[in-house]
Amino acid sequence: MPAASPQPRRPRSGSRRDESARLAVLHAADDLLVEHGFGALTIEAIARRAGVAKQTIYRWWPSKVEILLDTLIEDSDKHLPVPTEKPTAESIRGYLRDFARFLADDPAGKVLLALIAEAQHDPGTAKSFHKRYLDPRRDQEREMLARAIDAGEVSPRLGPHATIDALVGPIVYCALTGSTIPRGLMDTLVEDLLRPRSN
Predict the structure, then answer these.
(1) pLDDT tens string 144-177
(2) What CA–CA distance (Å, rounded) separates 176 from 151?
(3) Read out DSSP for 78-95?
(4) CA 199 – CA 164 distance, rounded (Å)
(5) How many CB atoms sit inside 10 A of residue 73's CB?
(6) What share of the chain has pLDDT > 90, as a percent?
(7) Confidence category of residue 183, pLDDT binned at 50, 70, 90
(8) Which residue in 41, 39, 40, 101 sits closest to 71, CA to CA?
(9) Which residues contact 47 (CB under 8 A, 6 or more apart)?
(10) What is the rounded distance in angstroms from the CA atom of residue 95 to the CA atom of residue 171?
(11) Predicted TM-score (pTM) of this structure
(12) Neighbour tally for 119: CB within 10 Å
């Protein structure tokens, strides 16, 4: 009887990880990022905080960017899932509010902002960020929007790509610049960009 095919693993990561050590590395990375910023984050510091050997980290991840991406992907799935059921203007509004809270309060939100900033001047970070995180999440967000359109819940004034950019862009901009997100911003975005069809 042929052996079962191995389960797919994350890109560039080594096999046979110790789960407790893996989680310790991820937690150490986002904690240190929040405390000291992206520029001061090093593999050596992550190893010390996590209590693992530096060689162990390099065996599992090729760079600190890939560690941060693993952290961001896992925490986003847990703390900021894209709605998949009963798409409505209200569920999209709720997702935008959750996104704003994620950026403001969750350590993984700080990871997201740091990777966005780093991707502006490092092509390798930009490529990995788009491939592993941004493009898959945008696909989920566009699917959420498409289901709401098909259900007759919303009628965007723009195409799907531009609509997603217009919805999340102001929230990301406020977070990147350290500005307070204005009260009512999500309501305005939803009402102006996703105005429900009227008879």
Answers:
(1) 999 999 999 999 989 888 999 999 999 999 999 9
(2) 34
(3) HHSPPP-SS--HHHHHHH
(4) 25
(5) 18
(6) 80
(7) confident
(8) 41
(9) 25, 53, 54, 56, 57
(10) 12
(11) 0.85
(12) 18
- On whether the CB atoms of residues 25 and 67 are closer than 8 A, the answer is yes
- Residues 64-123 have pLDDT tens digits of 999 999 999 999 999 999 998 878 999 999 999 999 999 999 999 999 999 999 999 999
Q: Round to whole Å and give the CA distance between 198 and 155.
A: 9
In order of 53, 120, 172, the CA distances from 179 in angstroms are 39, 20, 10
Amino acid (1-letter code) at residue 31? D
> How many residues are present in the chain?
199
Place of tokens 């990375």: 29
Contacts of 48 (CB under 8 A, 6+ apart): none
Query: What one-character-per-residue DSSP string does 138-196 give?
Result: HHHHHHHHHHHHHTTS---SS-HHHHHHHHHHHHHHHHHHTPPPPTTHHHHHHHHHSPP
